[in-house]
Amino acid sequence: MKMTVTEKILAHAAGKSHVSPGDIVNVSPDIIMCNDATTHITIDIFEKKLKNRKVKNPSKNVWVIDHNFPVNDIKTAEAHKKMKIFADRHGIANFHNGDGVCHQILLERYANPGQIIIGADSHTCTIGAIGAFATGLGSTDITGAIATGETWFKVPETIKINMTGKLNKGVYHRDIILYIIGLTGADGANYKAMEFTGQAVREMTVPERAVLCNMAVEAGAKNGIVEADEMCRRYLSEQGRDADRSYFKSDEDACYEKIINVDLSRIKPGCAIPHNVDNYDELENIEKNRVKIHQGFIGACSNGRIENLREAAEVLMNRKVNQQVKLMISPASQSVYKQALNEGLMDIFISAGAVVLNPSCSACWGGCQGIMAENQVSISTATRNFRGRTGHPDSQIYLASAAAVAASCIEGFITDPVKYIR
Amino acid sequence: METHVIHKLGNDIDTDQIIASQYLMLPDIENMKKFAFETIDPDFTVKFKTGDCIAGGKNFGCGSSREQAPAVIKAIGATAVIAESFARIFFRNAINIGLMLIQCPQIGDDLNDADSLSIDLKNSIIVFNGKTVRFHPFTGQAHEIISEGGLIEFINKQSAEDKK
Fold this sequence. Notes:
Oligomer: heterodimer
Strand order of the largest sheet of chain B: 4-3-2-1-5-6-7
CATH architecture of the largest domain in chain A: 2-Layer Sandwich
Strand content of chain A: 15-25%
Distance between the termini of chain A: 50 Å
Shape of chain A: globular
Largest interface: A-B, 54 and 43 residues
Mean pLDDT of chain B: 93
Order of helices and strands of chain B: EHHHEHEHEEEEHH
Strand order of the largest sheet of chain A: 4-3-2-5-6
Largest sheet of chain B: 7 strands, mixed
Low-confidence stretches of chain B: none
Low-confidence stretches of chain A: none
């Protein structure tokens, strides 16, 4: 019986030789990730409702403070304190406070191919880039997994997204995923796995694959995944980690719910128009509308990696951000920050008049940085452009690549970045 | 049969609309609930009475994994959410906290704002405007969790049984 990579990982974790879509499996997650947006709720459920209040496997927990860092008010400080006290009491030593965005921390330090990874954050699907089954769950599911060491899944059907061709100048991995979500719609992959494959994907690095997997949830998917391969082995080795593990691969004739073929050479620089992620259009069209912007943001689990900062730096080098616009750049982790410093990117950003923020979820989620007033407009590499996500309900967020954000901040209007790329 | 007033919303009602990010750090759901659906209608929770129902189109609850979303809907006293389809994480969170979800793919534009609706769980039907519509009852693991009133109740029962 042939299986997809997602089916193989779930079957292996459940101790079964075979699973099919629709089967219910019980698994023990290898990593349980919590962050500060929801963990105060998780702790309340654990302490007030559970009868057997023990953490099953403290070492499998990774807790990250990233959504509101540095803390901006007392109630949030109390929530962070609650997390730290709980973690210390229960021996959760993998605790990160301000080191970066949770999904990036997991990619850099913890996640491995073939693992089951659950996180109390919808963008946990990012980590499928390393060939793991990674998905987001809510507080009660996470509480259950922390206490029992187990959780359950219905094996999803898989949509295969087969990519060929090469990206044109000014087009990035971010454009690919915005384009694909435009094709599928916001619920086009609801409950399903999105498997990114094909020659073009095999040539992508793990951080580039992470840009694709990151947004799978915006099509409703349970997980996004790229099967682990030599690129993955190289990434793990670069991080100084053990790359010698079982790498699951989809069988040639595995059964897919649907196959979507994407020729990368046909994709143009794109964006998602307010207030839905699937509201896709090409920037050359939007550019004609002369949409005036007040703010730009580059960062987050979606586009805050070193590759994305390099994309922005290429546009910003020897240029200035428009006086009417504030551009904020937040590296996805301290290690990305350090590398950007070493490569001279921070110098380019600051010389251009951009503001560099600490690694965190920042303006992507509207917790404590980059909040917008009524009728203000931003262009952002954030994960979502929902109404009111980053401030006033009548503010607007356009989602685009780091290069498009940089180019737009120079012009003061939403702009196709092509003319800024050598 | 008991009837419930419908508050009708559209397609793709996302978790930020259900409860905005800026309220997530409030200490608990009781403090958050008055801000439910604020971006759709600042007076939503004033107009909403205990026992009323929310109706949506497709992909209700898309977006973040925040369990605060179904939790505030339960806390404002909603009997159920009726929609053509639900986003995955919201669906699972609602089951886990015991918020009733009724998935009716064929409901379309038939159900409107301020309609009265009754729910017959035993026969898996809803009745409104003289129409009777069947919905899919929960099965498998989801059914077991709902039968216990939520995931934590399910786990508590299991750990009690393990000790026997």
